[in-house]
Design brief:
This protein is of the alpha+beta class and 205 residues long. The chain has 5 helices and 9 strands. A 4-stranded mixed sheet has the order 4-9-8-6. Strands 2-1-3 form a 3-stranded antiparallel sheet, with helices on one face. The chain has a two-stranded antiparallel sheet with strand order 5-7.
């Protein structure tokens, strides 16, 4: 189905773009929410007439988005899930779980703003992106632990796809420390072996 976008839609286009989408997506989401019109000559004229009003409304939405982003700053979420020995969850943490938790904390927005490509299926720390406005994005740290574990024990190093990652400089430091330990152990071993050897030139009576 061909529609005219009435707002910026992630991975779809900017306002005014004419795009082809699945009929169900258009009828169940885009059209009822006023995010698009069927692409007809009449709707194109309607779109042009509404341009000035839309710009004013967009300024209001941006202002509201900035306030929401400021209130979300510093928010952290933690979920407890049972998991296997290899840290694979018996279940998952989904967009619906994250949205529900944020709603319980008083944050109200369309859950489609949460840009989580796949449900979280492993223990660890994840950075979840929330597209509040086309120009405003907030990252929410989400941690998944076993029941009873402390979520703050997870190191705060994140990547976009939600995998815990240790910075290269930390890996290098760990490797250097490991090398120093090995060298110290080798020196101690050589010294110990030297003490066990009989002194040179000693003649038994």
């Amino acid at each position: 189905m061909k529609v005219i976008l009435n707002d910026y839609i992630e991975h779809l286009g900017e306002r005014g773009d004419s795009v082809v989408v699945k009929r169900g997506y258009a009828n169940n989401y885009l059209l009822p929410k006023g995010l698009a019109y069927p692409d007809t000559t009449g709707n194109r004229r309607r779109f042009d007439q509404e341009q000035n009003n839309w710009e004013e409304m967009d300024l209001e939405r941006r202002s509201a988005g900035e306030k929401l982003a400021a209130s979300l700053e510093g928010t952290k979420l933690a979920f407890e899930r049972r998991a296997s020995e290899k840290d694979v969850l018996f279940g998952s943490v989904s967009v619906a779980d994250i949205h529900r938790e944020l709603q319980e904390r008083g944050f109200d927005f369309d859950r489609r703003r949460i840009l989580l490509e796949h449900p979280i299926k492993e223990l660890g720390a994840v950075n979840v992106e929330i597209q509040i406005h086309r120009e405003i994005t907030v990252n929410i740290p989400v941690t998944v632990v076993r029941p009873g574990e402390d979520p703050d024990a997870i190191a705060p190093q994140f990547v976009a796809e939600g995998r815990l990652e240790v910075p290269d400089e930390e890996l290098a430091a760990e490797a250097e420390n490991a090398t120093e330990v090995v060298e110290e152990t080798e020196v101690e071993t050589e010294a110990s072996e030297a003490e066990d050897l009989p002194e040179t030139g000693t003649v038994a009576e």
